[in-house]
Amino acid sequence: MDKRIAKYLMQVEKPARYIGGEYNLPNMDKPCKCKFCLCFVDIYEVGMSNVGINILYDILNTDKDIVCERCFAPWPDMGDILRKNKIPLGSLETGTELRNFDIVGFSIPYELSYTNVLYMMDLANIPFRAKDRDESYPIIIGGGPASANPEPFIDFFDAFFIGEGEETDLEFCKLNIKYKGNKKKILEEASKINGIYVPSLCNVVAGINTTKVVKSIVKDLDKMQFPRKPLVPNMEIVHDRGVLELYRGCYAGCRFCQACFFYRPIRYRESDTLIGIFQDIVKNSGYDEVSLSSLSTGDYENVVSLIENMNELATKENVALQMPSMRLDSFTKKLLTNARINSLTFAPEAGTQRLRNVINKNITDEDIDTSMKIAFELGYRTIKLYFMLGLPTETDEDVLAIVDIVKKIRKIYSETTKRKDLFINVSTAMFIPKPATPFQWVEQISEAEMYRKQDMLKKELFYIKGVHYSWHGAGSSVLEGIFARGDRSLSYAIERAYNLGCYFDSWSEYFKLDLWNQALSECNVDTQKFTGLHDIDKPTPWDFIDFGVTKEYLIKEYKKALIGEVTPPCKYKCNGCGANKLGACRMFEGEENK
Amino acid sequence: MITIAFKKTIDGIYVSHTDILRCLNRTFRRAGIEVAYSKGYNRHMSLKLTQPLPFGIASDEEWVSCEIVGMITTEELLEKFNLHCPPYLKAHLAYKVEGNPNLAALVVASDYFIECKEAIKYKAEIEKIKNHFEVEINRKEEQYIKEVSQDIYGLAITDKGIYFQLPFGNKNLRIDSVGNQLAKNFGLEIDNTNMRRLHQYVSVDNKFIEVSKYLETLKI
Question: Where in chain A is the domain with CATH 3.80.30.20?
Fold first, then answer.
């Protein structure tokens, strides 16, 4: 624990966030040649639920020359205490100040966490911009899911890791050991590694980087280390259970989904490996719940036999298996056995078949009906439904069709169970066009339009018994849209917003739209430039990244979307997205084998 | 049923009661100690703790009871438990007893120690609280002043600090309410992290008996 903050712990909400000392903590006292601080730009409970953080922490600490510590964004009450008492932000394990590490790496999960990078740097007394940091400061690197377009905040980093970090983080640490103290040389050598983007060494033309960076991937996922002795937090975290990652990438090809395209090619952990990891996690952590995680768990090849094998072990060990991301078309009774859950979550995303075709959500009305019937036969009485509003080509009829789905589900429930006590949670998020997707060029609807669509649903759903409707904030969605497709000019707005008092923007109680608007206005940001329709012939700020999936494929998908044509999931047939050129796509190999 | 006494110290003082329960559950599982599960829809390990301690307070004696499946001696149990528990917990006593001793309902008082070297300077004044003592009770839902002198079962002041015996259970007087009021009244530097629970008592024939001694009488 950070001893400097011990005497303040009684003054903050949830002091357990700051004590560290989790069960299975690696040896932090081993002699090392490289000290790495893995920072997560949200609070402990959120960060510790992030699989990526746990994987990197495990891999780095396994290396004999590296000690990796963690640092999570302190909640504002602790942030105020640190400021007031002039205590620079330190690591969770030993309280070492961030600026005394060799490398400080920020994992950035989403656009609304940009200001928290500055918040943590500020608390650590580290200058925001890379150009203002001399050799005495650690190398500041960034990575994580927001790396699909790092341009809006690239000025704050010495290097940015695009793609998966398991191998690149290790390589980067080795360079740090080899050229210790020579930041310039380390960055020069790092820029030659796949997936490492060093902005100071890139060609920038008219504000757009033209130096190519190829996304890094783990080619052999099955052999890649996965935490078998996971840290067991001392407090309840968001996903308070063991996690087993089945595979990376996604077959489905939903055109709005960044993760689907960003994490391609599809790579597997084989069943035997998974069972071994499962047994180790249960034995070493004591978790009585293990989540089988991936972008679409039900699509894992032989998922039923995997679950059956695991169920046998799970029953013996009193472990519940959870499958958090089930597609409606992959939902079967067998997958639900031994899952101690009270509610089921599905994401039809759109109300009509037409719109589901546009977004390539390959599920039909029949899939919905069948899945619901199965769920109700198994005794589920609470259903969560996720939809998106503001999708390309969406009409009011599409929005109102969500109400029809809800009514239909209620009807299926009463027909199946002869009861009327169904509870449906309907949740809508706003569609945000994201880089590396076929919808990266489309226009985002205005804030006013977002409110209008939400109001329409509110009015209709209000009168249906047992239905609860929740929605994602329009203001934050617009902001997310701006930064998702933003360019380098936005770094000034981010810095201004932070200086005005914006941080923890993804927490509704701290989101300050008025201050953000002020910052954007003071920095003369034309928001329409980023949220409006993009010309497919013009370069985008993220064009320099080779995601594997080609731009030509994205354009093809975009054009198919506009005429409502679907692309079948690639588990049936390789659609030639191009991701295989990065290596090891399971589906591409399958094609060759055939 | 097996009843185990464990210490909760160092950083464990910041771990909440429900998180301690979760932590015990995982410790038993890691240690391979087979504890009986509930039989309901949401099956969970059946663990029965005595009443919670406020945040920031250490304890020399917390009690947890559970039904063990299979054969294990209390010595083996303690060894396995301590090998697999987080560093801030340590079990030191275990008793096999007939049925559920239901300590949560039986415990009626606790001993506490507040570390405060300067308390001795105010010995005479502090001792008067046995005659009259008003404490501010701060709950989420209400705040009020309560006269609690009759609830102070025992009080001793040494050059190391103050010892209290307070009601615990159905009739409850929290040590942090008492300690913080003393800090306010006498300007003492006390907060929850200076407080420690020492022993818990059950009432037998209107006499307080330490839980460990009570369990000795039930031991099988």
Answer: 242-489+525-581
Query: Chain A within 8 Å of B46 (Cβ-Cβ)?
Result: no
Q: Kind of pairing, strands B161-167 and B195-204?
A: unpaired
The confidence band for A208, taking pLDDT boundaries of 50, 70 and 90, is: confident
Q: What is the CATH number of domain A242-489+525-581?
A: 3.80.30.20
- At A185, the amino acid letter reads K
If you average pLDDT over residues A425-451, what whole number do you get?
96
Residue B57 in tokens: 């307070």
B16 touching A (Cβ < 8 Å): yes
Of A1, A288, A317, which is closest to B11 when you measure between CB atoms? A1
Q: Which of A19, A232, A340 sits opposite B26 (nearest CB)?
A: A232
Task: Enumerate the domain spans of chain B.
Answer: 2-105, 106-208
Whether B90 and chain A come into contact, CB under 8 Å, resolves to no
- Interchain contact, A340 vs B42, CB within 8 Å: yes
Measure Cα distances from A262 to A160, A204, A479 in Å: 16, 24, 21
pTM across the whole model = 0.93
Q: At what angle do helices B74-84 and B17-31 cross, to 10 degrees?
A: 110
Written as one string, the DSSP assignment of A440-467 is TTSPPPPHHHHHHHHHHHHHHHHTSTTE
Given CB atoms, is B2 within the 8 Å cutoff of chain A?
A: no
Q: Which tokens is B90 given?
A: 């340590």
What is the 3-class SS of A461-486, one letter each residue?
HHCCCCEEEEECCHHHHHHHHHHHCC
CA B68 vs CA A288, A427, B96: distances in Å = 17, 44, 10
B119, B183 Cβ separation under 8 angstroms: no
CB atoms within 10 A of CB A470: 10
Q: What's B220's DSSP letter?
A: -
Q: Which CATH number fits domain B2-105: 3.30.930.10, 2.60.40.420, 3.30.70.580, 3.30.200.20?
A: 3.30.70.580
Residue in A closest to B55 by C-alpha: A10
Residues B170-220 have pLDDT tens digits of: 788 999 999 999 999 999 999 999 999 999 999 998 899 999 999 999 888
**Interface touch B19/A234, C-beta < 8 Å:** yes
Where are any strands of DSSP class E within A99-229? 103-107, 139-143, 159-161, 196-197, 204-205, 208-209, 213-214
Rounded to an integer, what distance in angstroms lies between the CA atom of residue A559 and that of residue A574? 19
pLDDT score recorded for residue A330 = 59
Contact A265, A582 (CB under 8 A): yes
Query: Which has the closest alpha carbon to A264: A34, A519, A14, A587?
Result: A587
Using CA atoms, how far residue A129 sits from A132, A196, A503, B203, in Å, is 5, 18, 17, 66
Looking at the predicted structure, is the pLDDT value of residue A593 above 50? no
> C-alpha distances in angstroms, B95 versus A316, B48, B49?
27, 14, 15
Nearest CA to A277 among A209, A330, A223, A328? Answer: A223
Per-residue model confidence (pLDDT) at position A594: 37
Q: What is the pLDDT of residues A478-521, one digit of tens each?
A: 999 999 999 999 999 999 999 999 999 999 999 999 999 999 99
Q: E strand or H helix at B7, and its extent? A: strand B2-8
Q: Taking the domain A3-210, which CATH number applies?
A: 3.40.50.280
DSSP symbols for B44-105: -B-EEE-PPPPTT-EEEEEEEEEPBPS---HHHHHHHHHHHS-TTEEEEEEEEBSS---HHH
**CATH 3.40.50.280 domain range(s) in chain A:** 3-210
Q: Which of A354, A394, A395 is nearest to A565 (CA)?
A: A354
ipTM above 0.85, yes or no: yes
Question: Distance of CA A417 to CAs A133, A261, A336, A367, A377, Å?
Answer: 65, 40, 18, 19, 7
- Comparing alpha-carbon positions, the chain A residue that sits nearest to B193 is A10
* Residue in B14, B18, B25 closest to A19 by CB: B14
